[in-house]
Write a structure and sequence with these properties.
5-formyltetrahydrofolate cyclo-ligase, globular, 195 residues, 21% strand, magnesium, alpha/beta, Rossmann fold, 5-formyltetrahydrofolate cyclo-ligase activity, nucleotide-binding
Length: 195
C-alpha cells in the first residue's frame, strides 16, 4: 500500500470517530476506565503519560481523574521547543496552566521543573487514528510517537499502549519501516496484548 492509502485511511477513520455522538463518547470514556485500571494495577504503574482528546479521539479525562484520585502521576506530551518532531512530557495536575500548541491541542505550559524524563514513565498511552489486530498503529503522520518509542524495547520503558474507539480498528494498517508496533492496545470494549 502507498502513502496515499494511509492518507485515505486517516481521513476515513477520523471522520468515523468524529461522527460518534457525545453520549457514545461519554460511555466510551467511562468504559475505558474499567479496562485501563486493571492494566495499571497489573503493571504497578505509578507514572503514566496520557493525552487530551481532540478530533473525536477517545476521551481520557475520566481516566486522568481516576489517576489523580489514586495517586498515579499523570503527564502529558508537549511539542519539544528546540527539537523539531519530538515530544517532551510534563506533569499534569488540576492546576497546571495550559496553552494551545501549533496543532491547536492543549498542552501544559512549558516549565522545565515539570519535565518528567521518559525513563521515569511506566506507561505511555498513545492516541492513534487506526489500528489492526497485529498491533500496527496509524497516527496522524507526524511521527512524534514513533520517535518517542523507537528504543522502548531495549529498556522495556516506557511501555506503549494504544487507546482507541472500537470503530478505529481496520483489517490491515499499511506499515512503513519507521512505524513502531504497539505491544498492547485498549478500547472501550476490550484489550489486546501482543508482547
Amino acid at each position: 500500500m502507498t502513502l496515499i492509502d494511509r492518507d485515505f485511511l486517516r481521513t476515513t477513520i477520523r471522520t468515523r470517530r468524529r461522527e460518534l455522538s457525545s453520549q457514545a463518547q461519554q460511555h466510551a470514556a467511562r468504559q475505558l476506565v474499567t479496562h485501563v485500571v486493571p492494566f495499571l494495577q497489573k503493571h504497578q504503574a505509578r507514572c503514566i503519560s496520557l493525552y487530551l482528546a481532540c478530533d473525536g479521539e477517545l476521551d481520557t479525562q475520566p481516566l486522568i481523574e481516576w489517576c489523580w484520585q489514586n495517586e498515579i502521576k499523570v503527564c502529558l506530551p508537549v511539542l519539544h521547543p528546540f527539537h523539531e518532531g519530538h515530544l517532551l512530557f510534563l506533569s499534569y495536575t488540576p492546576d497546571t496552566p495550559m496553552l494551545l500548541n501549533r496543532f491547536r491541542i492543549p498542552e501544559p505550559e512549558m516549565n522545565s521543573s515539570h519535565i518528567v524524563p521518559k525513563h521515569e514513565i511506566d506507561i505511555i498511552f498513545t492516541p492513534l487514528v487506526a489500528f489492526d489486530a497485529e498491533g500496527n498503529r496509524l497516527g496522524m503522520g507526524g511521527g512524534f510517537y514513533d520517535r518517542t518509542l523507537e528504543n522502548w524495547q531495549q529498556t522495556g520503558r516506557p511501555f506503549p499502549v494504544g487507546l482507541a474507539h472500537d470503530c478505529q480498528q481496520v483489517e490491515m494498517i499499511p506499515t512503513e519501516i519507521w512505524d513502531i508496533p504497539l505491544p498492547a492496545l485498549i478500547t472501550p470494549s476490550r484489550s489486546w496484548q501482543w508482547s
